[in-house]
Design a protein that fits this description.
By secondary structure, this protein is an alpha+beta fold. The chain is built from ten helices and ten strands. It has three domains: 18-117, no CATH class; 121-199, Alpha-Beta Plaits; 203-303, no CATH class. 31% of the residues lie in helices and 23% in strands. It has a four-stranded antiparallel sheet with strand order 4-5-3-6. The chain has a four-stranded antiparallel sheet with strand order 8-9-7-10. Strand 8 (162-170) and strand 9 form a beta hairpin.
Length: 303
Amino acid sequence: MLLRGWIAGFVVALSCLLTATAQDARFIRLRNSTVTTPPAPNSKARTAAVTAGKPPVSGLFLIQLEGPLSAEHRETLQSKRLRLLSPVPDDSFVCHLDAASTAEIRAIPFVRWLGEYQPEWRMDRRLTAAMAAEPQVPINIRLLLRPQTPPAALISALRQFIGPVHRTETAFGIFLGGTTSPGRILELARSETVLWIEPAGRMKLVDEIATESLMGDDGTPGKPAQVHNLGFDGRGVTVSVADSGLDTGEAETMHLDLNGRVDAFFAYGGLEDASDEHSHGTHCAGIVAGSGAIDTQDSNGYL
């Protein structure tokens, strides 16, 4: 009876311990993985880590805070040479350390956890599967470099591609697209500048199909949609497309599908002209007002 009571007590104590541990655990929910983070160590352990004086490090890390980020939190982290890059659920960020002390950052009271941003966390699962299935076959990829990537690191990333590279710079970072080998993809994933890598999407011409899906038709290529036959064909409507620009930004050299359909250009935000820096504005304007004059067709004959 005494032994049975002791076992029962032990089971209850263990159950309480596991319950408390589960309640204390939190998570960082990445696109292709979930990181479980333990409670932050007590102040004594944090102080001991700082006193140990480990050398400063640079690179990409994940950080989780005890709660929502405030302006004061951001300033404190910046003072420790840590720059927040991308928010991640819950109360977490991908961040960059520039010769920073991880012990000093972990000693900050509102910091719950700090760890290296592992290469496997930066790669889309579809990309990982493709590399495993055909490890010798080049893959068309798209990746994102962190904002303010140093020129040397950018050149190093560009050298990992085979052939031409499409490059777009935004406030979120630098997007690179092109073809490379699985081995070089792994090298990119280990870089201190690469935030994310995924398979590049395949472009398709589906505008007439999209029109028919929304406007009604019998599926015959080149035939007006039902709403067009009712008189709703855009005539007499003026639309403003506020985007990245429009083709060359000049009516005289406008794309044939938009020729004669542009009344005015307006360059805003300090831009010198209305030319399109990366085609998104032209793409949207083509959907809104393209005539289909050049008769580009897909493999099934749809415009």
